[in-house]
Each structure stands twice: as structure tokens, then as C-alpha cells.
Specification:
Elements lengths: L9 H27 L1 E2 L2 E2 H9 E6 L6 E2 L5 E14 L17 H11 L5 H9 L11 E3 L9 H9 L5 E10 L7 H4 L1 E6 L5 E7 H5 L1 H4 L4 E6 L13 E3 L6 E4 L3 H18 L3 E7 L6 E7 L17 H4 L9 H10 L8 E3 L2 E4 L2 E4 L8 E3 H6 L3 H11 L1 H10 L23 H8 L8 H12 L10 E5 L6 E4 L11 H16 L16 E8 L14 E9 L6 E8 L9 H18 L12 E4 L7 H10 L3 E5 L7 E3 L4 E4 L3 E5 L4 E2 L8 H11 L3 E4 L3 E5 L6 E2 L5 E6 L1 H4 L12 E3 L4
Parallel strand pairs: 4-12, 25-28, 30-33
Antiparallel strand pairs: 1-2, 3-10, 4-5, 5-6, 5-7, 8-9, 10-11, 12-19, 13-14, 13-23, 15-18, 16-17, 19-20, 21-22, 22-23, 24-27, 26-28, 27-34, 29-32, 31-33
Pathway: Cell wall biogenesis; peptidoglycan biosynthesis
Subcellular location: Membrane
Family: Belongs to the transpeptidase family.
Length: about 750
């Protein structure tokens, strides 16, 4: 048999070597990738996460701004953002287009409903369908003009059935009260960031100053999808919750602020002044209850004319005019140099080469210092300065805080300047010319007059609260700034200030109130020109009033100034009084301050009742003429209001908190203050509408509250609900029990 001869196949061998080597390389590569998880220095897991990992943002709400009783001043609310789809690829059925087909028609309709959007600009944006790198755009947006759209406008545009026009839900900063302490509150706007995100930023006022506290931190949802963007089975969602911004509670009283805004608007319309400022404060604590100015703006639209974008109460200095005589008088009384019946020659006063004159240029002959103060005599103040002493007088102004910042919790506070280098400067400062102050300095100094010598620092922030936990982050308490004068001095000053309204020589008769005795001082300040001279003429002054009420125990102090009003043969005090009088009167009634003509009533002492039987106390307190309100099922008292040792007017409420379910009382004729005490002690969800006293409630008295449904309570206006009969009043004044 013939043997086969072996033949070496070079082709097969080379193929074996080639494919074998290729397999070895691929195998090695696979092992390397599996072991390191990297390709060309990049982690595959990271690339996969970038391709298939998705993330959506959970938008954080900006913190709310409230008044002192929890009524909203500024908050985020639902709005809509306009989006236009411009890529034709979005349309799969030509009969049902899903992109913008007719740019001109679309722009015309959008401009009709959204005035901030100009038709030409919208057309240009809709027709520009490519990015700068040449790639097609899928959608376009319209900046600030296309954000903050209300539901009403959105609905109208949707009815037009414009192809490619979509709306995305968004948050908008909302100011429900319109013009309301606008220069204090300020405003916040949506801002586009470089990374394409949008953030609400404070642009002015408290919104700007406390932007960090109000701004929340957005959360996110992370998840995985496939190549078609469908959620992968069993993929985990990782949620980082959003942290909403902190809430800010102000010292403002919404009702008093509303009184102020209404009165200032009326005077502005009637007298067309160049500017106006006003502040209402609690002299016992320094809390600012209301603050406003004109011209002003609505934070929703931010439209205004001839307006300064600064808070004039804090940031602008003025020559205070005769309101400064209040503190010259206080200095004289406190140094025992005040002799009210001593005579002096009015009309003119000469110091070195300068002569000053009274406002009528000729004076009233030889009159007493008391009459001179009532007539607002400049020469009376100049003569008083000789008795007080220049250095002592300047020291008193320093004690009252003039020339220094008050330290109010607002930015950019001005200091003002007390001129004292030359003798004439010290003289003119006694009646408020030359030296400058801020309205907030006048308020702070006046607290010493109203508060028996104790001067309180003004403040507007009550507390800052973590909106998620309710924990108080910052808590602002009243701060005493010293005692520039003695208590007896303050009482004498109040009596003399009251006489400027009641005396036949008084200059403040326009500020008399029907139910309350007012004490205060008018001011008519010349306004300096740029060249150093002063304007002159009835319509060229800064008219003002710095006052308080009631005289015996002032509960409110108020400063009002009206610059260059267009008077109609009237005194400059008239437009000022048209702000001061209604605001002071309505505010005192709103706070349940008893009028001066009410006869004296007996007061009942209470004590700390913690641990005692609520049932026994009900009988005891009712026999004493008080109105006990038991909060809970009864048994031992665990909390009460008022606390500690107090004296209450008969008819006043005493709240006694016990354990157990809450039975709803009859709220009829309850004051807002009592209603808020009950809400605070019970923690019930209550929606309170209106002002003054309760007129109706949505849940009947005697109902045991078992769920968290809100209880709606409506109040009448102060004018309708105010009760002058003390024994029938829903709340009395509280005062400390004497130690004697």
C-alpha cells in the first residue's frame, strides 16, 4: 500500500496564527476590562450611568414671610412657564402637529395675552431653530417674560389651541397684599443660572437681606433607564428631598399696616406730595408694627414713578424740624432747668453775628416757656440751651441715640449728623435745623418719652423658623438701649406734648382724636437745596408729626412726614393729620386699648394656677368677674394665659389649659388677640379672616374636635365691632401687680 505523503499547509498555519492571536488579544482585553472596569482610562460604570442614569429636580419652596400673627405677606405660589416646541421631528402626524407651525400667528396670540412678550421678538425666537453649533433645537423658552404665568392666562392661551405651545408648572413669588410695606419687604425674581437652572433671588428689602435664609435647597430623584428612556425593571430610585427655605415672622401687624397704606394712598392722591414716610411702633418693646413710604410700588409689577429704591425710614436722613424740640424739652426738664412759667422775649435771638427768628418772624412778645413750646417757638429753644448748657445738651442727644445707628435689623442704616462744632449749630439743632436724623432714630428716641425713660431698640424681625421642623432658628427679643431721662421727666414731657393739642396756643390741634388723648410735636422743616440754601414757601416744607397715645400709658408711637404737599390754603399739618389720625385711632381700637373717657374700673389679680383644679378655678375666676376658658377635658391646669402675677380688668379672659380633647367654645365677640391665644394653646387648624371681633365660626360651639379639618372664623371690622362698655369687653388691659 502506498503511503500518503504529508504536506505542510502554510495558508492554514498562517490563518491559525492570525485568528489565534486575535482571539488571544480579545480574550486579554475582555479580562482586563472585567478586572479594571475601565476603557481608555474611563470607567464603564460611569459612562453607563451618564447614558442611562437620569435625574429630575425636586424644586424647593422659598420661605414665607408672615406678619406677627402668622398672616402671609410673601409666599411661593403655583404658576406656569411657557415652552414652544420648534423641532419638526416632534410631529408624527401632520394632521396633528406638535411643533410650532405658524410663528407669526403664534407670536401674535402670545403677545395678546402676555404684554411683556413683544411680537417681533417672539417671531424671531420661534424662527431661530438651530443652536450656535448648528444642531437643531427641540424647544425654546422666553426668559422672564414666559415665566410666572397665572392659571387664568394659561387657560386662555390653551383655548387658542396653538400647535407646539406647552406649559410647565412652576413656582412664582406672590405678594397677596399688593402695596404693603413694599420698601421693607422688597421683592424676589426668577434668575437664569449659567448651568441652565433657574433660582428665585431676592432683589430688594427683606427678600434681599435675608435671601440666604429664605432660599431653600432643591432635592432630586435619580433613576436608571434603558436606551429608549424607559425605567429599567427593579432599578432603584434614590430620592434626596428638597429643603424649603426658612420662614420669617415680622413684628408688623397686618391690620395696622393696612390702615397705614390706605391713609397714605388717600393723602398722596389728594395732595400729590414729593414724598411721604410713616412708622408705627410699640414703645414697650420697640417692635415696628407698620412702615411705609410714598412713592412706592407693587411688588407684583414693580412699576413706579419718581421713586427712590431705598427704605427712607432707615436709609435717608432729614432735618427733623420742630419734632426735635421734644428732646430739647426733655433735656431741660431732666437737668432741672425747665421753668414753665418763667418769661422770655420771643421773636428773635442773636448769637455772635447770626440771628434766628420764630416761624412768624416777629414772635408774641414776652411769654412763658410753656407757651413758647406750645407755639413751637425757636427762640424758646435757643434760650433753653443757655440754661441747659451746650455740652450737656449734646450729651443728651447722644443718650437719645442721635448720630448713631439704632441697630435695627435692617441693612444700610444711616447715622445722621449732629452739628455741634459752632455755637450757631448747637442753637439751630435745638429746633431741628442743620443737624440730620433718620425717622427710625426719632422713633427710638420717642420710646424713652413714652416708656417712662426706657429707650427701646426698634426691630422688624420677630423670629426665623425652620419651615420643615418648626424649630426657631433666630428669636429677636426687645432690647433696652438705656435710660436717657428719668421716669418723672418722661411723664412731664408727655403732659406738655399733650398740651400742644389742647392749649389755645397749641400748633397740633389737627391731631386731636375723639376717643384718645394724644401727645406729640409737629414739625415744619426747611428743605436744604444743593447750594446750601433752603427752600421757602407753603408748598416747600417737610411737614411732620411725632406723637403717641394714650398719654397716660402710651401703647403706640407714630411718626409721619409729608414733603412738599400741594396745599389748598391749608396748614401743612392737615395732610399729616390725615395719615396720623385714622391710623392711630383705628390701630388703638384694633388693639382693644380702652378710650380715655371710660370710667375707672376695678381690676382683679390672678396668679400661677399650674397644678390646680380647672373646675374649681372656673367658679373662683367667674366670681371675680373674669371669663375663664378651659382648654381640654378639665382636671389639673398644665398651662395658662396670662401667666405670672397680673391684674386684669373685669371681663378679661383667662385661659386654663388641661389634658384631653378640645371642646370648641362660642367665639362670638372674641378679639383677634384672644382667638390667636386659643389657637396657639390648642394647636388647632384655624383660618381667620377679617379684623376686630368674631362674627361667625364654621364649627358650632360645643363640638369636640377630633380631626385636623380647619375651622374658619370671620371677624368684623374694628369700627363695627368696637365695644365701649368695659364690662362687656372681650379683653382687658393687663398690668403688673404692685409689690406694695
Amino acid at each position: 500500500m502506498k503511503k500518503k505523503r504529508f504536506r505542510f499547509q502554510w495558508g492554514a498555519f498562517l490563518l491559525l496564527i492570525f485568528y489565534g492571536g486575535l482571539f488571544f488579544v480579545l480574550f486579554t482585553r475582555m479580562v482586563t476590562i472585567q478586572a479594571t472596569g475601565e476603557v481608555e482610562g474611563q470607567e464603564l460604570a460611569a459612562r453607563a450611568a451618564a447614558k442611562y442614569g437620569k435625574e429630575s429636580v425636586i424644586t424647593a419652596n422659598r420661605g414665607k414671610i408672615y406678619d406677627q400673627s402668622g398672616q402671609v405677606i410673601a409666599e411661593d405660589t403655583l404658576s406656569y412657564r411657557l415652552v414652544a416646541i420648534v423641532n419638526e421631528a416632534a410631529t408624527t402626524d401632520p394632521k396633528k402637529p406638535r411643533h410650532v407651525v405658524d410663528a407669526e400667528k403664534t407670536a401674535k396670540v402670545l403677545a395678546k395675552y402676555i404684554p411683556a412678550m413683544k411680537e417681533e421678538e417672539v417671531v424671531k425666537k420661534l424662527n431661530n431653530r438651530y443652536r450656535s453649533d448648528g444642531k437643531p433645537l427641540y424647544q425654546v423658552e422666553f426668559g422672564s417674560a414666559g415665566r410666572g404665568i397665572s392659571h387664568e392666562v394659561m387657560s386662555k392661551i390653551q383655548k387658542e389651541k396653538l400647535p407646539g405651545i406647552l406649559f410647565v408648572s412652576d413656582l412664582k413669588r406672590y405678594y397677596p397684599n399688593g402695596v404693603f410695606a413694599s420698601h421693607l419687604i422688597g421683592y424676589a425674581l426668577k434668575k437664569d443660572n449659567k448651568d441652565g437652572t433657574v433660582t428665585t433671588k431676592g432683589e430688594m428689602g427683606l427678600e434681599y437681606t435675608y435671601d440666604k435664609e429664605l432660599t431653600g435647597v432643591n432635592g432630586k430623584v435619580e433613576y436608571e433607564t434603558d436606551a429608549f428612556r424607559y425605567l429599567l425593571p427593579n432599578s432603584e430610585k434614590m430620592i434626596t428631598p428638597a429643603k424649603n427655605g426658612d420662614d420669617i415672622y415680622l413684628t408688623l401687624d397686618k391690620t395696622i399696616q393696612s390702615f397705614l397704606e390706605e391713609a397714605m394712598t388717600k393723602v398722596e392722591q389728594e395732595y400729590n406730595p414729593e414724598s411721604m414716610t410713616a412708622v408705627v411702633a410699640d414703645p414697650k418693646t420697640g417692635k415696628i408694627l407698620a412702615m411705609s413710604q410714598r412713592p412706592t410700588f407693587n411688588p407684583e409689577t414693580r412699576e413706579s414713578q419718581n421713586m427712590k429704591w431705598l427704605n427712607e425710614v432707615i436709609e435717608e436722613t432729614i432735618e427733623p424740624g420742630s419734632t426735635m424740640k421734644t428732646f430739647t424739652l426733655a433735656s431741660a426738664i431732666d437737668t432741672n432747668t425747665w421753668a414753665p412759667n418763667a418769661p422770655y422775649q420771643s421773636g428773635s435771638y442773636t448769637i455772635l453775628d447770626r440771628t434766628i427768628r420764630d416761624h412768624n418772624q416777629v414772635g408774641w412778645g414776652t411769654i412763658s416757656y410753656l407757651e413758647g413750646f406750645q407755639r413751637s417757638s425757636n427762640t424758646a429753644m435757643a434760650n433753653l440751651l443757655k440754661l441747659i448748657g451746650d455740652e450737656v445738651f449734646i450729651e443728651y442727644l447722644d443718650r437719645f441715640g442721635f448720630g448713631h445707628k439704632t441697630g435695627i435689623d435692617l441693612p444700610n442704616e444711616a447715622t445722621g449728623t449732629i452739628l455741634s462744632k459752632y455755637p450757631i449749630q448747637r442753637v439751630t439743632t435745638t429746633y431741628g435745623q442743620g443737624s440730620t436724623v433718620t425717622p427710625i432714630q426719632l422713633i427710638q428716641a420717642m420710646t424713652a418719652i413714652a416708656n417712662d425713660g426706657k429707650m427701646m431698640q426698634p426691630y422688624v424681625i420677630d423670629r426665623i423658623v425652620d419651615s420643615s421642623t418648626g424649630k426657631v432658628i433666630q428669636n429677636h427679643e426687645p432690647v433696652e438701649k438705656g435710660q436717657p431721662i428719668k421716669a418723672d421727666t418722661a411723664k412731664q414731657v408727655r403732659e406738655i406734648l399733650a398740651s400742644t393739642l389742647t392749649s389755645k396756643y397749641g400748633t397740633a390741634k389737627d391731631f386731636i382724636l375723639e376717643d384718645y388723648e394724644v401727645a406729640g410735636k409737629t414739625g415744619t422743616a426747611q428743605i436744604p437745596r444743593a447750594d446750601g440754601s433752603y427752600s421757602w414757601g407753603a408748598n416747600q416744607f417737610l411737614y411732620s408729626f411725632l406723637g403717641m397715645a394714650p398719654v397716660d400709658d402710651p401703647q403706640l408711637i407714630m411718626y409721619v412726614s409729608v414733603k412738599k404737599p400741594k396745599l389748598n390754603n391749608e396748614l401743612g399739618s392737615v395732610p399729616v393729620s390725615k395719615v396720623f389720625n385714622p391710623v392711630m385711632l383705628n390701630s388703638l381700637k384694633h388693639l382693644n386699648i380702652n378710650p380715655d373717657d371710660i370710667q375707672h374700673v376695678d381690676k382683679v389679680g390672678i396668679q400661677d394656677y399650674t397644678g390646680q383644679s380647672a373646675e374649681a378655678l372656673e367658679v373662683e375666676l367667674a366670681n371675680d368677674g373674669l371669663q375663664p376658658i378651659v382648654v381640654g377635658d378639665g382636671g389639673k391646669v398644665i398651662d395658662q394665659y396670662p401667666k405670672d402675677t397680673k391684674k386684669l380688668v373685669k371681663g378679661s379672659f383667662v385661659f386654663l389649659k388641661t389634658d384631653g380633647d378640645i371642646t370648641l367654645p362660642d367665639f362670638t365677640n372674641w378679639s383677634l388677640r384672644n382667638l390667636l391665644v386659643f389657637k396657639s394653646m390648642t394647636g388647632l387648624e384655624m383660618e381667620i379672616f377679617g379684623e376686630g371681633f368674631v362674627a361667625s365660626q364654621s364649627v358650632s360651639a360645643g363640638t369636640v374636635i377630633t380631626d385636623s379639618s380647619p375651622i374658619v372664623v370671620k371677624l368684623k371690622t374694628p369700627a363695627e365691632s368696637f365695644v365701649q362698655d368695659v364690662e362687656a369687653a372681650s379683653e382687658g388691659e393687663v398690668e403688673e401687680v404692685d409689690d406694695e
